[in-house]
Design goal:
Oligomer: single chain
Structural class: alpha+beta
Number of helices: 5
Radius of gyration: 28 Å
Shape: rod-shaped
Length: 183
């Protein structure tokens, strides 16, 4: 069974989907689809494997709906509950904990936030593909790496502040020592 991409009503490419999953996506006959081996995008009704989706054969429809419902429940969420809300992506936070500490204190360690950015970018992709479990896992990893980068940045800033305080204390004590020696 092939996996298909399709173009939604907003012109956005979505995929990959099995024919059963395409039924749940409620594609229409004129919806453009593509799969590996096709030279160009075609209306769904012109693809032999997808044509039964539009025939109205009651037995086929019932069979496909049961298969789709089982696959969706196996993926970790139920169609009865409706569509799941996309997990937090952490994209804005991960960008901030990567760029701001680097600009403020030139800490190359803040570049660990790039790992968080990669995971954060995957959340929406997995969610749009229908892989909710992978989206949740990518969100969890993005949150973890965002927090790691944040704590490294905080630690780095604290070290700089402590170093500045120690320099002022040292300079002050040297000035006091020189006054003592001059008296």
């Amino acid at each position: 069974m092939n996996r298909y991409f399709y173009i939604d009503t907003y012109g956005k490419q979505k995929g990959t989907f099995s024919p059963e999953e395409l039924r749940m996506e409620q594609i229409r006959k004129e919806t453009l689809v593509w799969t590996q081996g096709m030279e160009q995008w075609k209306p769904a009704v012109e693809v032999e494997e997808l044509a039964p989706l539009f025939t109205g054969d009651a037995a086929f429809v019932a069979q496909q709906q049961v298969a789709s419902h089982d696959q969706v429940q196996h993926a970790g969420y139920s169609t009865a509950a409706g569509t799941q809300q996309m997990p937090k992506s952490w994209l804005v936070e991960s960008i901030l904990v990567t760029i701001l500490p680097f600009l403020l204190c030139s800490s190359f360690l803040s570049l660990l936030g790039i790992i968080a950015i990669v995971y954060a970018a995957q959340v929406e992709s997995f969610f749009n593909r229908g892989d909710y479990a992978a989206a949740v896992e990518a969100s969890r990893a993005a949150g973890k790496w965002t927090r790691i980068a944040m704590w490294i940045a905080i630690g780095w800033v604290l070290l700089i502040i402590i170093a500045i305080i120690l320099i002022f204390v040292f300079v002050g004590s040297m000035a006091g020592l020189s006054e003592l020696l001059n008296s």
